[in-house]
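User: Before I run my own analysis I want an independent prediction to cross-check against. Here's the chain; please return only the structure tokens and, at the end, one sentence I can use as a sanity check.
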Amino acid sequence: MRTAVLDMAIRWLVEPDLEPLCLGARCSTLPRTPAPFDEGAGDGWMEMLDLDLGVHLCRVVHRFAPGQGGLRPMSAVQADLAEPIFFVQSVRVGAGVLHDQRVGLRLAHDSQSCVFAHLDRVDHRHLAEAGGMLEVTALGMERSRLDGLLGAAAARDLLRALEIGRAPAASVRPVPQHIKSVLEAALTDSLTGGLRRLHAQARVLDFLVALARHLHTLPCPEANRRARIRRVREELDQLQGQVPNLGELARRHGFSARALNQGFKDAFGCTVFAYVTDLRLDAADALLRASHVPLKVVASRLGYASVSHFSRAYIARFGVRPGSVRPRSG
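Assistant: Structure tokens:
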């Protein structure tokens, strides 16, 4: 029997004095085991199933008593691995936070999203939103097994699309419900023994196929970023030199202000503000060369606070004073 896990320790954060659950490579299947709760706070359990050949499933259920709320630390999991693994965690009901201490990220997720990770070691803390019920299914699959199932090139594409190409890495991604539900149904209570194991294996394969197909229809992260940068420039062109609020512009297109400026500079050779400034001055130059509109009107129309401010910017861009390009009177 081959397993993704060499050894694993699970500590209950609700009762830190309890002895941790310890699993090894020869026994990485855990029957349904109660999770400790303070008296009257609720109940829950977890189970693990080693599907052999480097594939591992875990299911956790917590039921919190009414009247509770906020994030509750529940468990900490540490594991040494035979090789890097592809990891997925999906919430069917409720919400929680996976604190991946290996990569230093707190990954909040709910029934609309999944945590994806590429791990060379497991070092997780799990927190649950204590507002009802939480049900979580997690999958761990050795990278060589993923390569064998999908092919090495397709497996690399899958990890890159999830932005977890190199271990250790982790991300949270929205996943359609019809795909999430395949994984969440892998460990069913309606089957036992070998049939339950066979069902779980089939659902894992179905999930991988559905996920790969879904990601194949989406642009890769870099292509998506470039497309969003192009849309920013198109919006700036429509503004005709009006100065936008950089923070609001960035939020509308899914960037931080700093990331937008850097991405825009990488793509077009200047910052957003410099691009807008050039648009304004190009528009002013065209207007001045074609009319006798007063400089005060030109400056005001293009958003400059004063004629002197406008003149300095114009000279810096074109090397001549704005009045010198006026058309000559007939």
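Sanity check: The two ends are 95 Å apart (CA to CA).
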